[in-house]
Amino acid sequence: MAQIVQYGSELIRINTQKNTIEYSKDGGRSWRSRYMGSVAGVFVDLLVYGSEILACTSKGIYYSKDGGYNWRNRYNSNSCGSFLQLASDGQNVLATTSKGLYYSKDGGNNWRRR
C-alpha cells in the first residue's frame, strides 16, 4: 500500500497512528502536518493520479487537488465494498476492495468489477 507518495517536489504520507496527512520538503527527513480532519474517515492508501491525490479511506474514495490540504468525497457507495488499495495502469484507476478488483475510467467517480 502506498502510504507515501511523491507529489511534485514534496513527499505526502499517511501518519497511521494519528490518521493525519503529512508532508516533507526535504526527502523525508522531517515531516509536518497538513490535514488533521475527520471528514474523510480513516486514510488507508494514497495514489497520485494526474494533478490529484486520491485516497482510499474508511468512507470511500476522496481526492485532493491542493497537495492534501483539503479532501473531497469522490465515491462513497458500498457497492464495491471497502476500498483497500489504489493503483493505476496508466489509463484507469484500479482498486482492490473487500469485494474484489475494480477499475475506474474517470478518476474514481464510477467503478466496475474487473
**Low-pLDDT sequence parts:** none
Calculate Rg over CA atoms: 13 Å
Number of contiguous helices:
0
The CA-CA distance between the termini, in Å, is: 20 Å
Task: Report the sheet with the most strands, covering strand number, pairing sense and barrel closure.
Answer: 4 strands, antiparallel
Strand arrangement within the widest β-sheet reads: 1-2-3-4
Order of helices and strands: EEEEEEEEEEEE
Strand content: over 45%
Helix content: under 10%
Structural class: mainly beta
General shape:
globular
What is the total tally of β strands?
12
Mean pLDDT: 96
For this entry, give a set of tags:
114 residues, mainly beta, 4-stranded antiparallel β-sheet, 12 strands, 52% strand
Describe the protein in words.
This protein is an all-beta fold and 114 residues long. The protein is 0% helix and 52% strand. The protein is built from no helices and 12 strands. Strands 1-2-3-4 form a 4-stranded antiparallel beta sheet, with no helix packed on it. The mean pLDDT is 96.
Topology (SSEs and partners):
Elements lengths: L3 E4 L2 E6 L4 E5 L7 E4 L7 E7 L2 E6 L2 E5 L7 E4 L7 E6 L4 E5 L2 E5 L7 E2 L1
Antiparallel strand pairs: 1-2, 2-3, 3-4, 5-6, 6-7, 7-8, 9-10, 10-11, 11-12
In short:
Helices cover 0% and strands 52% of the residues. The protein has strands spanning 4-7, 10-15, 20-24, 32-35, 43-49, 52-57, 60-64, 72-75, 83-88, 93-97, 100-104, 112-113.
